[in-house]
Amino acid sequence: MIQIKDLHKSYQMGNNSLHVLKGINFNVKEGEMVSIMGSSGSGKSTLLNILGILDEADSGSYILDGVSIKNLNEKVAANYRNKFLGFIFQSFNLINYKTALDNVAMPLYYQGMKRKERIEKAEYYLEKVGLSAWSHHLPNELSGGQKQRVAIARALASDPKVLLADEPTGALDSKTSQEVMELIQGINDEGKTILMVTHEHDIAQMTKRIVHIKDGLIIDDNPVKQVRASLYV
User: Fold this and answer.
1) For 62-88, what is the mean pLDDT?
2) CA nearest to 124, candidates 114, 113, 132
3) Which of 26, 116, 123, 229 sits CB 3.0–4.6 Å from 181 for a disulfide?
4) Sign of the C-alpha dihedral computed for residues 102, 104, 106 and 109 taken in this order
């Protein structure tokens, strides 16, 4: 599903160049659930941005579902993001003046889907995350856990090949974190490929493979015995 080969990325900082990724090699098979760990500045967020087609590597190759991701203009990049990827962010990134239902339907609007079909699909995914009763509420009327569930429903609505989650439990208390992880594990059980950046070891243990990045290189990449979140809830 994902093939990364000899990926390098640098950023210009004034007169200096900061070499963030120093030759990343990384493959993810369809249906895997992988967490990426590393201290601040290790390169994990840069890697996630490249995987999410939000940034581009300086050199190396990135193949996503058989498609080479390279030298894309913004229109093509946006099209690929919408076609291949679903995003879950720590800060939820919901539109405050739109209801939960309209937030979930938003990616489908960009796919050119008719309104009736968008609403039906959004209702289905809100039900899937247990929030049917909250579909007409605005984000400020929802708890943190509910907002993240809306964000997960929105990420799933366009039926992406890969879900990218950036610290999905970072803004949640431990009980809500377990509930959200139970939901994410269930999505993976259905066959969805999931990549997650986290700094929390107990959350990483709920995936099936942990990749450690340090100073722009992968220093460790091992399968783990998955801890089921339902044991904690």
Assistant:
1) 87
2) 132
3) 229
4) negative
